[in-house]
Amino acid sequence: MAFLMQFANRWSSLGWLGGKIVRFVFFLVFITAIFKHISTVAGYNLQEVALFFLTFNVVDIIAQLFFRGLYMVGRDIREGDMDFYLIQPLNPLFRISSNLIDFLDFLTLIPVLILTGILLPKLLGPLSNLELFLHILLYLCLCLNGVIIAFSIHVLIASLTVRTQQMETTIWLYRDVVSLGRFPVDVYSEGLRFFLTFGFPIAVMVSYPSKALIGILSLEKIIFAFVLAFFLSILSHRVWKASLKHYCSVSS
User: Fold this and answer.
1) CA-CA distance, 207 to 3, in Å (whole number)?
2) Which distant-in-sequence residues (6+ apart) come within 8 Å of 217 by Cβ?
3) What does the pLDDT read at residue 224?
4) If you average pLDDT over residues 215-238, what whole number do you get?
5) Pairwise CA distance, residues 237 & 204, whole Å
6) In a 10 Å sphere around its CB, with 0-12 CB exposed, 13-18 middle and 19+ buried, how is residue 89 labelled?
7) How many domains does the chain have?
């Protein structure tokens, strides 16, 4: 149903898709232009910075692809659709999360995955087959871990929306902060790095997978990443359930 809705107007969908791809290409051009004047950024070369950027897109696009429905919680509450979700024999959080699947993001994800696959041999060439397998496996696990963290943050924002019926400002604040993950967090000041790791864990979402792939992420930080995702997933679900207890129907 989501696919048919998006492609009912093909020209509109192609325009959105073209805009996403142009933005992605322009940022790659921007990174390449930077490295024409300098050799490294915070100790990372062009290929490594490109990996951070591609990993950011992998995690962010997957989150946008599957969790876009959470952006509509405010509208669902104001229009009364939330009442119907709560009386249906289905988990309301799953119902809301899967309410809008963005297939345009799926098409955008394809070139990102292709470029990441092209880049991997250049970064992991000297490794043995076993080391190559372990590095890629850890990278994929941490990317999935980043998606779980992104989902948890979306659920926390949706929980706040249930309480206040206001989401636009909060979700765009999230979008602005998460965009800092396009570059390695090492380029930022120490205070901002601390905030992006422990306060708003963008670094754990998008920087940790890249660092693990190139072999510079410590075991302690790997454990911390998985523990953080587990903690945030539990916290977000508890906050969501608590928010539903305070939900007032539009007919109240």
Assistant:
1) 32
2) 208, 211
3) 95
4) 94
5) 20
6) exposed
7) 1
**SS3 at position 85:** helix
Question: What is the residue type of 142?
Answer: L
Residue 131 placed within a domain: yes
What tokens does 141 get?
């696990």
How far, rounded to the nearest angstrom, does the alpha carbon of residue 120 sit from its chain's CA centroid? 21
- pTM for the full model? 0.86
Q: Is 65 in contact with 116 (CB distance < 8 Å)?
A: no
**CA dihedral of 65, 82, 175, 191, whole degrees rounded to 10:** -120
Percent of the residues in the chain that have a pLDDT greater than 90, as a whole number: 21
Q: Is 213 a member of any domain? A: yes
Three-state DSSP state, 44: strand
Residue pointed to by tokens 């207890």: 245
Is residue 225 a part of any domain in this protein?
A: yes
The range of the structural domain enclosing residue 168 comes to 2-245
Name 44's bridge partners: 41
Query: What gap in Å lies between CA 89 and CA 104, rounded to an integer?
Result: 30
- The reply to whether 15 falls in a domain is yes
Helices 129-164, 46-67: axis angle to 10 degrees equals 40
First to last CA, the chain: 31
